Structure to design on (303 residues):
């Protein structure tokens, strides 16, 4: 079984995944998506370092982090080409696309009937201003998020059209969402890690402000997850059809859970710090099961 591990954006996750793969009897080839080449004119055009002109059976991916639109598009293309050639890629690039684009996640989650804050996505400042005029007040602002954002970066509250940044500042897409007032004192929301339709670990995050990401100082806190929350998180992963992910939930003023987003390239060091289950090991187990299932030798009946 030839397995590639593309996890070049952080030592902690890379070494956990590497160790879990080796513990399962696999010697993974570490490579960076930045080093993958496409060379036409002879043999397999997709050249992945460490595979000698052949393709792996599976690729486990921590992140694609291209840096520019061009690099990201090429990397996604490479992953699509791997899938088309029968390679198991976790997460599948189609799922990554659905999750990285917050508007598509919102659309699919809403379409599946899963509770999520009302969301408005438009491509002109005038259309955004109309929505803000109609939907926002100082007491109930809208949240503006970067369409491809993560780690709680770049979010802001918008109460009047004047609060809207220019079109170029939002990369020409305004993603606006109703602000969910919390039920309790203080700022807390929830992260649920789901792998293959099962909850692996969950935590509450407690922040000093309304953005509670661990990268923004949110504190991982043990949480006795209600079954309603677990089932919402699992349904959200099914709506975007992702193999492993971190689902963000928020509890609204009525004590009901809503899905904020599904992360197809989640980090889990914060969650691991309060979890007994080894999250990387669970991801590797699910991934290898998928690789073995896809490459099971077919039995040809003797004639
Ligand atoms: N609609 C909302 N109402 C209230 N708080 C929100 C809302 N959307 C996001 N937040 C807060 O901001 C954080 C980051 O938002 P999220 O949608 O998860 O984007 P990111 O990809 O940056 O993590 C959430 O974990 C939550 O604390
Ligand atoms: Mg989030």
């Amino acid at each position: 079984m030839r397995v590639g591990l593309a996890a070049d954006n952080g030592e902690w996750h890379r070494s956990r995944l590497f160790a879990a793969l080796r513990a399962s009897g696999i010697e993974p080839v570490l490579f960076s998506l930045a080093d993958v080449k496409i060379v036409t004119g002879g043999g397999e055009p997709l050249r992945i370092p460490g595979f000698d002109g052949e393709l792996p059976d599976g690729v486990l991916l921590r992140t694609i982090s291209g840096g520019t639109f061009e690099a990201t598009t090429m990397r996604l293309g490479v992953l699509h080409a791997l899938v088309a050639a029968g390679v198991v890629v976790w997460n599948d690039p189609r799922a990554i696309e659905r999750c990285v684009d917050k508007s598509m996640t919102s659309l699919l989650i809403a379409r599946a009937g899963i509770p999520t804050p009302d969301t408005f996505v438009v491509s002109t400042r005038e259309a955004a201003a109309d929505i803000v005029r109609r939907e926002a007040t100082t007491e109930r602002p809208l949240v503006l998020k970067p369409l491809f954002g993560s780690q709680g970066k770049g979010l802001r509250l918008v109460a009047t059209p004047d609060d809207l940044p220019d079109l170029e500042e939002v990369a020409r897409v305004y993603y606006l969402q109703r602000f969910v007032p919390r039920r309790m004192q203080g700022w807390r929301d929830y992260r649920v890690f789901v792998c293959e339709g099962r909850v692996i670990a969950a935590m509450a995050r407690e922040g000093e402000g309304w953005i509670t990401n661990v990268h923004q100082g949110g504190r991982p806190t043990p949480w006795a997850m209600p079954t309603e929350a677990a089932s919402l998180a699992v349904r959200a992963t099914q709506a975007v059809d992702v193999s492993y992910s971190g689902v963000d939930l928020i509890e609204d003023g009525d004590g009901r859970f809503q899905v904020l987003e599904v992360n197809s390239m989640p980090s889990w060091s914060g969650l691991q710090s309060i979890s007994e289950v080894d999250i990387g090991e669970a991801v590797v187990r699910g991934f290898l099961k998928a690789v073995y299932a896809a490459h099971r030798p077919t039995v040809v009946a003797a004639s």
Notes: The radius of gyration is 21 Å. Helices lie at 11-23, 69-84, 93-100, 102-111, 125-135, 227-240, 269-272, 279-294.
